[in-house]
Amino acid sequence: LRPRQGTRDHPPAQAALRDRLLGAVVSCFKRHGAAAIDTPVLELRETLMGKYGEDSKLIYELQDQGGELLALRYDLTVPFARYLAMNKVTNMKRYHVAKVYRRDNPATTRGRYREFYQCDFDIAGQFDPMIPDAECLKIVHEILSDLQLGDFVIKVNDRRILNGVFAVCGVPESKFLPACSTVDKLDKVPWEEVRSEMVGEKGLSPEAADRIGEYVQLHGGLDLIEQLLQDPKLSQNKLAKEGLGDMKLLFEYLTLFGITGKISFDLSLARGLDYYTGVIFEAVLLQQENEHVEELVGVGSVAGGGRYDGLVGMFDPKGRKVPCVGVSIGIERIFSILEQRLEASGEKLRTTETQVLVATPQKHLLAARLKLISELWDAGIKAEMLYRKDPKLLKQLQYCEDTGIPLAAIVGEQELEDGVVKLRDVATREEVRM
Amino acid sequence: LRPRQGTRDHPPAQAALRDRLLGAVVSCFKRHGAAAIDTPVLELRETLMGKYGEDSKLIYELQDQGGELLALRYDLTVPFARYLAMNKVTNMKRYHVAKVYRRDNPATTRGRYREFYQCDFDIAGQFDPMIPDAECLKIVHEILSDLQLGDFVIKVNDRRILNGVFAVCGVPESKFLPACSTVDKLDKVPWEEVRSEMVGEKGLSPEAADRIGEYVQLHGGLDLIEQLLQDPKLSQNKLAKEGLGDMKLLFEYLTLFGITGKISFDLSLARGLDYYTGVIFEAVLLQQENEHVEELVGVGSVAGGGRYDGLVGMFDPKGRKVPCVGVSIGIERIFSILEQRLEASGEKLRTTETQVLVATPQKHLLAARLKLISELWDAGIKAEMLYRKDPKLLKQLQYCEDTGIPLAAIVGEQELEDGVVKLRDVATREEVRM
């Protein structure tokens, strides 16, 4: 009976907390007008291959038992793109909350599992620039604020700016993606290590790496955007100029949303996945000195996303593109934080919603209990009883206290004779006959 | 882009209908005081093997990519039993709504898929006989009544009665399970075919088969229970006597619940799975002459379950038993029925909950829209806007009509100057300035 590596059961207390958390996230998605869709956990192996870069090796494949070659979905974005192409949908705002699967090294204390929930919100369609992108960032801001996870920053960058940087630093186009996935490690390791991977593993020239280093260590706000728009080299690069222009527009919209205080234009942000084509972003919780809870979990990315304008076209026989931008909320990390916080607070979450326990104080009254509880259920009232013929009243009241049931509906011989029920408030012990 | 066999995407309209359906089922489970748990889709291969009889061949296995040998869960009952044993839980009332996986021949028009939802409610623990069992039947009755699926019958039997029948008909104990899975086919094929499978494939004597035939074609109510309790052969069999005694008690409780009108004690009900040990039941929708909807889908089992007192013990190193009884709601078939009914009615289900569209009647007012919508979101109001810089007012109002948004909040140049918003009721075209 060993547990399976990197997966976990959720007992009732955890399931209740997770329901509450998912409820908050979904309610934000609905507030922004998204519709739900559902796609299968099982996808064709070929649908997933070639979409995740180096991480494709983490895809779970099913045994060939005859029929199609299947795999478990790795994220919700690729299935969404497959769905859009398959159904020729060119315009959609959807959310999807479901489990995804990765044969990764589990680090369960930091909320990293092999089977875990993703909560995605995406906007597909040809629209005016940066309006949907700004809404995705607003959503991240709303959710992280609502959940009161402490201070956070949302890093923003654009793949076009990064590619422009690579180009003006003398990196050949064929090495943009490898260079990108190396830059992505800057949030975990110092620049020196990233530089040596660029030069060693990825085969960039030391001079190119040094030039990249000067750019990717920059971060700031509107001022930095203006500065880079004036940069003699970058301003000559078409991609970078487009990216910077859109970044400026994005900041304008985020100012109207009143959230630029938490936004950082950060050139080191690269995001690992191959499919991003424009704006990318990632939200990070900031370490709080005085709160041991965050320290236990370790800070890290709790939301991320970006624009992927080419992915749907990869699934369309004619290559028709549907521009998309989306965000994924890292629910498992947030769950780990909330769980430890709940534990520290000593608060006990109710795992059921039962309003009343139907109880009897004497023996031979099972029939009365069954009749009354049946009436309550039929009236839509959440009711329980002990599955005993003749339970002691004390035991029945104890069950209420243990599980947080606020009321007991008591039918004894006297009540039966009088045609009434005694309703008892478990906490105050007040009783009324009705 | 072929669809994967036996799976399906749920577009928004279907997802909304399914949410409504699952909501009704879960709300019944909560009304009966159940807590939620969650277990992984991935289980160890060895956990699932040897639990499903002939159907074990339908289990999806994962490729051996190093590490543990994994499989996709086949139902929610075996993982629940594994959960109880692993956590030494001896007492629990839980529900679980999640997807399960079977490499079956899909028959998607009849709601039979390879990936599908199960909605399970189970009561684990040592209690007085038939009280939890009666509650499971009450739950089926409540759900099928609430969903207004038309007339139905809940067939009830007991594995101990069936085994008693086999014993008194001269079947050796080693052939009880094969005989059981043959009897289970009686709802689909006539007795002659079942008899010939018993004699041919399962190796029962023709005399034994004939004697079984006399019993398993019986069905009725309390009168049949009394009759069998007087049966000269059956009444001598310990198992059958126990089963019949409990069946009588069950009918007593179901009478108090007022639901015996829909219950049929049916000796042909056997249920396919190996793990049942006591009461078993299955709910069937009855064909309705005048409603073409049901005919399209085909009638069939929409809920089933029973008592499995030995399953948890199979996972406990010391074989400690935890008696369990539970019910599974066949949500996919019900969904197919509701879907066809919705289609026939022409009713259009809203797929979003948006309350208000933020609109502008003139050009160059994007900033005003972004500011207002941001305020609405922050106030918890479900709001959308078109992702265009300068959309035509007509287009914006058309979007409301297409998606069912009841209100439009309009800010034009005049409103901006006056510091007001014009709120328009999309259906009545009434407008108020506020």
From TrEMBL, chains A, B:
Say yes or no: keyword Aminoacyl-tRNA synthetase present. Answer: yes
Can you name one GO molecular function term for this protein? identical protein binding
Q: Where is the Aminoacyl-transfer RNA synthetases class-II family profile domain?
A: 17-361
Among Pfam families, the record links this protein to: HGTP_anticodon, tRNA-synt_His
CDD domains named in the record = HisRS-like_core, HisRS_anticodon
Task: Name the Enzyme Commission number(s) assigned to this protein.
Answer: 6.1.1.21
Name by which UniProt lists this protein: histidine--tRNA ligase
Q: Which organism is it from?
A: Sapayoa aenigma
